[in-house]
Amino acid sequence: MKQLVVVSGKGGTGKTSLTAALAGLGPKKVLADCDVDAADLHLVLHPEVLEKQDFYSGELPVRDPDRCTSCGLCLEHCRFGAISEDFRILPEHCEGCAVCAFVCPTGAVEMRRRHCGFQYRSKTRFGTMIHAELGTGQENSGKLVTSVRNAAMEQAQAEGADLVLVDGSPGVGCPVIASLTNTDAAVFVAEPTVSAIHDLKRVHALAKYFKIPGLAIINKTGINPGLEEEIRAFCAAEDIPVAGALPYDMAVTKAQILGQTIVEYDPNGLGRLVQDIWDTIAANL
């Protein structure tokens, strides 16, 4: 079994659209949406939820007003502004450091697990999909990404699938590291813009650090030929195979409006280009 992760270094390059397009190609697979901070693969794949699990990470204090004597020690010691003047706990400011529970002389503060979101196992027209939803303002997305990937691997083993296709997080932070580690290959999706080239170099450096081989896809070609050549020159210098290129085309937007992948919407045009891209990726895997 292989694990293939699609990353971009920044948002908006078309990473999720390409992941959705690749989902319908190749061998039997399990899909994993690891962009848990702003998941959107479900908008195209329309998953039918089979199982929903709560995701907990860290702790939050809970105050018992009957035991609280309003001594003010919690307010005095809190460094995050998470205690109001009337000694209510403000969860949106709390970092879960537990100092309020530590200094409370009456034991009026208890630390409880923090509910951060949900994880799902769903059915799509391309196979099983493991995905998640992080609550608004919640943290530990890297931990949730790891949970999604582990569940996807277990599902793939149970189904006898040949591939886990991961829609990675944008950027180069903790959730991207959790998306990349221990995968067999990474696909870097880049568009010909200055910021995208900059972030392509950063995410490639991250994958290289973890010794993960990568391929590149140049998306939205035609908007800046000069920057396209810069991407190709960088890939050549770093021995990154270019799996293919896709032109900027409104057909992608039209497909998304209909809830389809570009392979389904335009099988003889852009869909054929995506098929060629998959053939190149498969040969490298």
Mean pLDDT: 94
User: Please, how many domains?
Assistant: 2
CATH architecture of the largest domain: 3-Layer(aba) Sandwich
Biggest β-sheet strands, sense, barrel: 9 strands, mixed
Instruction: Please report the number of helical segments.
Output: 11
Rg: 22 Å
Total number of β-strand segments? Answer: 9
State the CATH class of the largest domain: Alpha Beta
Question: Strand portion, in percent?
Answer: 25-35%
Judged by helices, strands and strand pairing, the structural class is alpha/beta
What is the CATH homology-level superfamily of the largest domain? P-loop containing nucleotide triphosphate hydrolases
Q: What sequence of helices (H) and strands (E) makes up the elements?
A: EHEHEHHEEHEHEHEHEHHH
For the largest sheet, list the strands in their spatial order. Answer: 3-4-5-2-6-1-7-8-9
Residue windows where pLDDT falls under 50 for at least 5 positions: none
* Overall outline: elongated
Considering DSSP H and I runs of 4 or more, what fraction of the residues is helical?
Answer: 25-40%
Distance N to C terminus:
10 Å
CATH names the topology of the largest domain as Rossmann fold
